[in-house]
Design goal:
By secondary structure, the protein is an alpha+beta fold. The chain is built from three helices and five strands. A five-stranded mixed sheet has the order 1-2-3-5-4, covered by helices on one side. A hairpin with a 6-residue loop joins strand 4 and strand 5.
Length: about 140
């Protein structure tokens, strides 16, 4: 059941990570990162997948869902965050059925230092079609 949708999700997950790594040459992680995996220069991507929901627009179709996809860009020493964000938006929106929503930006203090890194969370939504049971 839902084999096509499952394959599309797997393909999207691979594609999002691949386009970012290929373009920026930075490491990327899915869902979480261990403390010992964090690059020394604090420049990497973390892709986190949110809850699956049905939106009002999709209620009429009975088989449409959406899921938030959070592309977290951690950057140290990048004075062009907005410009980089535009490139990230273009690359990830190039993945089938993924649409950009908004960003949030934060400065995070590095542990036990007076130094900071930037964290830009780019929020996308992916559309998912699933096999809906036929009601009789």
């Amino acid at each position: 059941m839902n084999e096509r949708a499952k394959q599309i999700i797997k393909d999207q997950n691979k594609s999002i990570l691949k386009v970012l790594q290929d373009h920026f040459g930075l490491p990327g992680f899915q869902d979480n990162i261990n403390e010992d995996e964090i690059p020394e220069d604090h420049n990497y991507f973390l892709i986190v997948y949110g809850d699956i929901i049905r939106t009002d627009k999709q209620r009429a179709t009975r088989n449409g869902l959406s899921q938030d996809v959070y592309v977290v860009y951690i950057s140290e020493g990048n004075d062009e965050l907005d410009e980089t964000s535009l490139d990230i938006i273009s690359l990830v929106e190039g993945v089938k059925a993924v649409d950009f929503q908004r960003t949030t930006k934060e400065r995070i203090q590095k542990a036990d230092t007076s130094e900071f890194v930037d964290r830009v969370t780019l929020i996308f939504t992916r559309r998912i079609k699933y096999d809906s049971p036929i009601s009789g």
